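FW: tagging you since you asked about this chain on Friday. Here's the raw sequence from the shared folder, copied in full. Didn't touch anything.
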Amino acid sequence: MKYLNQSILIITITTVLICNCVLAQTNQIATAQDGRKVILKSDGTWEYQNASQNTSQSAMTFDNKPFDVKQEKLPPNYKGQDAEKIFNSLFKILLYKDNTEPLADFRARMQKDKQNLVTEYKKEMSDLSLDGIFAFQAVVIPSYDNNSKIMKPRFIAETSWFNEKLGYTYSSNDKQVRSFVGQNAYGAQVNVRVVESESLQILAINGEKFLSSESTGTLKYIGTGFNLETDSTQVKNNLRALIICKLIEPYGRYREEIIEPTFTNPEQTELKAKALVTEILEIWYYDSATGKIYFKQKAK
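HL: got it, structure written out here
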């Protein structure tokens, strides 16, 4: 397995099992195990449905100012800062680390070049200090108890391969790009799908302090519960979370890797994994259309 580590991230790769579906002449929609929608195309390729949604959302205006934790109402259609843009501004100057370099030497080099990193970052993000407070939007899974009038929003917290910290997948774009016939040393053949997978994760060094009570040993959620008298489709559709956080050195991580196919899993994944390294301060649950704040979750 070939891989390349850079100074910006570790991520978590979640295996997605797609339900069997017979393709017709038009695109089909299937639901993955983690709840995300998958577009099964008539030409045999597929991609996550949110890939097109991310494009339309990115056209909306992001907040380019430091986040004010004292505010009690957010602007209408608020979506926080642009994590992709912040990561890309850091990525231009991130340091490489190969497997032969001791971690202590790598950290010493990074500390030496930290000022250069900060200087270059300011050229791209002049209004957002690396030492400031950031807010990144997260899509939640809402659950409402009509008897107790409790809303329990949550979102999946994945475990990183790099340091086993928890993180939220802020954006992802997986698509099948080609296929080929693979063959082992004994001449057995299998059709192999090649998938390009690029994702950005908000990696939290203290994510366990915000875990939902509904988390299990293998499936963890970040979330909480709060009183909400009115439950409606509109409330659920507009409910979002804001991850209020600080960036922590080394600020970001990046990893490229090719996951080789096998006969039991004939899929070759060309991975580009990105992450911003953070410490969560609070998580706010709010109406993304009106800006109304329902609840502010504190660390346990």
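FW: The CA atoms of residues 23 and 44 lie 8 Å apart.
HL: agreed, and Residues 3-297 form one domain.
FW: great, closing this out.
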